[in-house]
Write a structure and sequence with these properties.
The relative contact order is 0.07. The termini are far apart. It is built from 18 helices and eight strands. By secondary structure, the chain is mainly alpha-helical.
Length: 443
């Protein structure tokens, strides 16, 4: 390879993985170059599945599934009521066996493309790490979202303003919807329903000569999601898969990748609540702690907008969690939470953001932020000073062993401005003028 080309490839790789300040060893450079070569070589118009050996019986099963699905799609798409691919419904036609055959086809396609499959135990661990799915406890999955079969699990992905918990289970066999499929049998996962429609069928197709579409979406999806390959992440971002990546955080709580955290923070179509909070796969409310830690690391002069977004979430949640249940029902993330769960959620948010307030506000840590007009008192005034049960819960649980929260509460309780000297209770709005300062003075 010419020196100029080599330098160009190396420069691109450094930008993609975010290591422009790192010094690479000779072995690192060779590894990066090889990875990029493999990524470039994945794409092909057509792939022959040379590694797949089918018996006559297996081929008849594949061919039968293909004919059935093709005829059904042709009939639906040529009908007067056809509204677009997202509305193609193969329920009553496609079966779990058709999906299993599709998973097999996808396995051999990825194998043909040189994908490196994880060993069984590592696959199980990675699926739990990214999606929260524990293969040892599949019976506890949210049955309004997950359907488990012998060969695979499907995670249904509702479309806003179209689907609900009441009808999403009836929309399982929609081949162009962005449901997620997990095949433990083949150690892979995929977005959209896999089927034998991968085959490019012609007069030469038989059990010994099967060609499939050679697109590389599934290669890069698995290579990133399961192998954590950042070059494949860059490929997905450059090829229109931002929504699927953001869904990892919004739908599954995967807040461990800064690039995805940044995508979600910058998405104006997502509400503040969706960015920082959701429900886990078992239906329980959860805070996206990783995205809060991301804000904590990057909320400097160049990323102050992240800090403002996080603070807006703080103000919303502190307000909403103290309202009546009817108000909370407007936010699906909060519905059904117990009082203790609400208090714990506030505690975790305070703990994560408190270092930011100290950073911008000096060691005082709870005053008015001159530049951004947001302060700890504004965000948590009602939470800390109006709801004494909150403070009791937090202290009864040893501040949930959260160091920043512990330090903040100790500091507030030691501050004579914030405690009513007559009652000993933190209620600064009730102070008398001669013994205390006003709220305006504090903020």
């Amino acid at each position: 390879m010419k020196r100029q080309t080599f330098i160009k490839l190396l420069f691109i790789a450094i930008i993609i993985v975010g290591c422009e300040n790192a010094k690479k060893t000779k072995e690192d450079v060779v590894s990066t170059k090889e990875e990029m070569r493999q990524v470039e070589d994945v794409r092909s118009d057509t792939l022959m599945l040379t590694a797949m050996k089918l018996t006559d019986k297996e081929w008849l099963e594949v061919k039968s599934s293909y004919d059935k699905l093709v005829n059904a799609l042709d009939e639906i798409m040529s009908g007067d009521d056809y509204e677009g691919s997202l509305y193609v419904n193969l329920s009553g036609i496609a079966t779990s066996n058709d999906v299993s055959l599709g998973g097999m086809m996808l396995y051999y396609k990825l194998k043909q493309q040189g994908y490196q499959f994880l060993p069984d135990n590592e696959y199980v661990e990675r699926i739990k790490y990214v999606f929260g799915i524990d293969y040892n406890h599949l019976d506890t999955l949210n049955k309004n979202k997950f359907i488990s079969y012998k060969d695979y699990i499907v995670a249904l992905n509702p479309m806003s303003n179209i689907d609900s918990e009441d009808n999403i289970l009836s929309k399982e066999f929609y081949p162009y919807r962005e449901h997620l499929y997990f095949f433990k049998k083949f150690n892979l996962c995929t977005v959209q329903m896999p089927s034998v429609l991968l085959i490019e069928m012609d007069e030469n197709t038989n059990k010994d000569n099967i060609n499939v579409c050679g697109d590389s979406i599934d290669y890069h999806w698995n290579n990133y999601v399961l192998n954590d390959n950042k070059i494949s992440l860059a490929w997905l971002l450059n090829n229109g898969k931002e929504k699927e990546l953001k869904d990892l955080l919004v739908n599954f709580g995967y807040d461990k990748d800064d690039k995805i955290n940044e995508l979600v923070l910058n998405d104006d179509n997502l509400s503040i609540m969706d960015k920082f909070m959701g429900r886990d796969i078992y239906g329980k409310p959860q805070i996206h702690e990783g995205i809060l830690r991301f804000v904590e690391r990057l909320s400097d002069e160049n990323h102050s907008d992240y800090f403002v977004k996080a603070s807006t979430f703080v103000e919303q949640i502190a307000y909403i969690l103290e309202r009546e249940d009817e108000k909370q029902k407007e936010y699906s993330q909060l519905e059904g939470m117990t009082l203790e769960e609400r208090h714990k959620m506030i505690a975790y948010v305070v703990n994560t953001l408190q270092p930011l307030y100290e950073k911008y506000n000096g060691q005082d840590g709870y005053g008015h932020l001159d530049k951004y007009n947001i302060g700890i008192v504004d965000c948590f005034w009602s939470a800390f000073f109006d709801d004494h049960e909150l403070l009791k819960d937090i202290e009864a649980n040893d501040c949930y062993n959260l160091p920043n929260l512990t330090r903040l509460i100790q500091k507030i309780k030691q501050d004579e401005r914030l405690v009513n000297k007559q009652t000993g209770i933190m209620e600064p709005w009730n102070w008398s003028p001669e013994t205390s300062v006003s709220r305006d003075t504090l903020i």
